[in-house]
Amino acid sequence: PKVSLEYSELIEALPVDKVDGNFVRTVKNCIFSKSIPTPLKGPLRLAAVSKDAIEGILDLDMSVTQSDDFLHYVSGARLLPGSVPLAHRYGGHQVKMFFEGGLGGRWCDGGFTVVTPKGSDGRAVIRSSVREFLCSEAMHFLGVPTSRAASLIVSEEPVLRDQFYNGNVKTERGAVVLRLARSWFRIGSLEVLSQSGEIDLLRKLLNFVIGEHFPFITPHDPEKYLVFFSTVVNETAHLIAQWASVGFAHGVCNTDNFSLLSITIDYGPFGFMESYNPNFVPNTSDDEGRYSIGAQANVGLFNLEKLLVALSPVLTETQQKQARIILKGYGNIYQMRIHQIFKAKLGLLGDDEDDNYLITVLLRMMEDTESDFTMTFRELSEISAKRFLNRNFTQVELEMWALDDLSRHERFSDWLSNYLLRLKTGRSSSDWIKCFTDVNPRYVLRNWIAESAIRKAEKNDFSEVELLHHILSSPFVTQETAEEAGYAARPPQWARRLKVSCSS
Ligand SMILES: *[C@@H]1O[C@H](CO)[C@@H](O)[C@H](O)[C@H]1NC(C)=O
Ligand SMILES: *[C@@H]1O[C@H](CO)[C@@H](O)[C@H](O)[C@H]1NC(C)=O
Ligand SMILES: *[C@@H]1O[C@H](CO)[C@@H](O)[C@H](O)[C@H]1NC(C)=O
Ligand SMILES: CC(=O)N[C@H]1CO[C@H](CO)[C@@H](O)[C@@H]1O
């Protein structure tokens, strides 16, 4: 059951547009359009590959990736026998914005970009592809539900990009990531049908998604769409809490970038927070902080409201009322999950009424001292009890640079005493340190780390992409190569000036 669905079954189940061809148009009465990809121009080169995804998900032998066929299939130059390349029709809501019907998208199998938003060339470039490849794999190994990346192929094809939308057009090279997910259907997949009054098709797509991915919902249950909604609400709250737990912010949480399966998809201008800051924004053009890390839970709520609107035509009035009550519970689910996650990150066992206070004060101190999010938690979990009690952060063989920053806070001493006292609850003195390193990663894909790999990749040196891919596959384990590369060290000065843009 590794690949549960054949293309032919998918096409049989859901209608495909009668019109063929790659041009921007408004389509109706279909879920897909056939769309033959424009192949990337050669010479092509396999820049990176994920063994775990190739073997574990696609069930292929790694040697396959060394063949010309693989390069050609994945880059769109050749079609797999019996396959039909499809573009998926969906729309979407952006926070505080109006509905835009007929957005295009990158649709599955080869990650081929076919029908594209706003009539652009639909190409991805090396920069965004390296980021997506590395980040989706990293997220998977951090334990966050996500789409996967099986391979990264780069070409010599020139693609023009205005990276920061400031008129500085630069030639970059086209690239393609083979992305994998159990499903690419989004909230926007349902919205477009609901919005245009195609209710039979809406039902059909819902039944399909439920049948394929929500096996615990029975097809004849009269409450099935309500149960579906309730599941998506719960899972979305959990997903966004998991993002927060690793300091990840998704830069474009629109309804068209939100999976119905509550997995992370569409890695555009994402970012991992470095210094703790609830207003951290991964998208440089987002001046209003619409997608700041502290706002992600609310953006999730906004998107779920839109999902409810899209579902309304297939819900009875009573069910709509119930659905609104379910949606009201979203905030609580999120808060409860966040509380659990931060307790785990601090190694707190059992329950104590002051736990919330302990967590809040820590985050407050981190914000004031601009302590590094990832390393503060990591170092708290690594430091030995004795050194901890001695407040000896700088002189240990592993430099505790994040705690060193944090310890400058006036409340740190008091907080530490309370924390140490609380840590003893529920555990013996011998085991109380080691047990929580497996929830606090030592390595995340910081922007400066990705940038360094991208600069080399643009010069055809993929060694750092490979090294990072390897390191980020075990983010909880201290690794010599990673330490040598400084991936857990204080970020270099130049990292502060880095910007991340939306253009792909
Ligand atoms: C909500 O989602 C979480 C995470 O997937 C799961 O563990 C939990 O059982 C779900 N709760 C309900 C009520 O479905
Ligand atoms: C980045 O933020 C700006 C402002 O909020 C928004 O208009 C833009 O769509 C965002 N970028 C993407 C790719 O969503
Ligand atoms: C801090 O720890 C190191 C060993 O890791 C030790 O050599 C040093 O004396 C300690 N400093 C203080 C002030 O305790
Ligand atoms: C990576 C990706 O597909 N992102 C999409 C998210 O949504 C915006 C529009 O709201 C699209 O422009 C992006 O292409």
From TrEMBL:
Coiled coil: none annotated. The keyword Metal-binding applies. The keyword Glycoprotein does not apply. Its cofactor is Mg(2+). Keywords: ATP-binding, Magnesium, Metal-binding, Nucleotide-binding, Nucleotidyltransferase, Transferase. Pfam families: SelO. InterPro entries: SelO (IPR003846). One of its GO terms (molecular function) is nucleotidyltransferase activity. Belongs to the SELO family. This is Selenoprotein O. It comes from Amphilophus citrinellus. The lineage of its organism: Eukaryota, Metazoa, Chordata, Craniata, Vertebrata.
